[in-house]
Amino acid sequence: MMRLDPKDPQRQRGLTAVELLVTIAILAILIGIAAPSMSRFIIQWRVSNAVNALTGSLRIARTEAIARARPVVVCRVASKTSTTCLSTAGTTGFASGWIVFANNDRDASSDYDATSDELLLRQDAPAGIANISLTNSGRFAFLPNGLLNSTATGINIDGMGFSSASATPWARKGLCISKPGRVRAVADATNCGSDTQG
């Protein structure tokens, strides 16, 4: 009868406790290094999604205003079920969501009326966005000629957990909206320059 040597590699299966602890320690270090980069990536991705959603809504509103030969409004709403335009930008701005509608009754207040106006698009509150701040009243109205019915403006979109533009500039993106309805993405709305002049 043949006996196997305990030092024989064929008998050694699995890991020792020391090898397992070393593997876990290395894995913990790698996760610790990767986690901040991953959270930063997620915030940037969410901010980009919000920029794309708002840019798309503004472009749809301008296109529909020209095509329908009547004003089309983008306004802030309080929730995903609301159609009441909020008259002010509020503390979180458009981060609570917005609607796009054809202002068929052409009322001066640019408020949505379910009996006469036509709802074109609804955008729920974008995930992971703390603030979409703007300088106007909380709505954009595009005239039948495609012009914005207000002064040009800049908008900053801040990701959740954003502390300040200087501390975490990667968590903010800006949009510049000119009077002719041109929408341009920038790092910060303070960079809009001539876009917000007319």
Automatic annotation (TrEMBL):
Coiled coil: none
InterPro entries: N_methyl_site (IPR012902), Pilin-like (IPR045584), T2SS_GspH (IPR022346)
Protein family (similarity comment): Belongs to the GSP H family.
Entry protein name: Type II secretion system protein H
Keyword Cell membrane in annotation: yes
Ranges annotated as spanning the membrane: 20-38
Domain General secretion pathway GspH: 50-158
